[in-house]
Design a protein that fits this description.
The chain is an alpha/beta fold. It contains 15 helices and ten strands. Strand 1, helix 2 and strand 2 form a beta-alpha-beta unit. 45% of the residues are buried. The N terminus is likely disordered. Belongs to the bacterial solute-binding protein 1 family.
Length: 356
Amino acid sequence: MKKWFLYSFLLICSVSLVACGSNKEGNASSDSNGEGKVATGEINLYTGRHYDTDQDLYDKFTEQTGIGVNVIEGKDDELIARMEREGKASEADLLITADAGRLHRAKTQELLQEVDSEVLSENIPDNLRDENNEWFGLTKRARIIAYNKETVNPEDINNYADLTKDDWSDKVLIRSSQNIYNQSLVASLIALDGEEEAKEWSQGIVDNMARDPKGGDRDQAKAIAAGEGDVAVMNTYYLGKMLNSEDEQEVDVAKQLGVIFPDQQGNGTHINISGIGMAASSQNTEEAQKFMEFLTEEESQKQFAEANYEYPVNPNVEPTEILKEWGEFEEQDLNLSELGENNKNAIKLMNEVGWK
């Protein structure tokens, strides 16, 4: 009897020690290097998008797959900085951010990893995804010229370069050089026309500014309505949201504006994206890839387009009626990776011409 008791006691102790040792090696919270994390049936999404409609899509994904989506919202640049700071210990599985320039920066900082997916390759055109498949476009927007219908003849503006003519002195409204959308616009001009011409264009814009740059794209539209200028450079989806705003003042402002898609006889209108990449730190790669593919499917793309007035990246999905009313347009023939590659030079030359 005593021998049996002693044997049982020793067996229980040995099993407990094995279990403790196994837990120590497999517990992600005890691993400061972020290694050894176990897939949980959940994914952690770092996102700079703050739309209720996006959350609806995430909920649908969970309903269809059983995979939970933990959403960590923040400002785009701060999320990228956070991922860099966290390194291999980051709990991030996915990053969604606006602008190909930011996605390229995340790639060069080795925060993303390659995703080999036939679904993503079929759903997203080559120019809207990274050449190494480290990031993929989700939605698309055009950077157009908005104008005052009462004071401007749209036939007088055919391209971005027209805004630098003397006719538009003190009439051009645009955001600051710190804005990533403007940096990417200039980066696209560098890619297509060279640095010298891009610098000349930037100088012309500075010379014709109606005021020092301030505010966002909506503020430029409001400044037109207030008579501070006649034309503004802005993204299409902002105007779409204003036309469908619950704020009657925003609706009234937007109705006073017309839309010009520049450079239809030349390089085409500048476009950009919001996009997604799988974090290099992800230990839930299978679940994360399923999520990426889900967001590029036709039904998800329709919801993106209808809710936020963005152009779908999936070519099988049509834009919303309001975007159709503005008409079809030719886009810049450019892989958006070049926006990130030319970002530093764009900032440099904008600073050189005094673009505040």
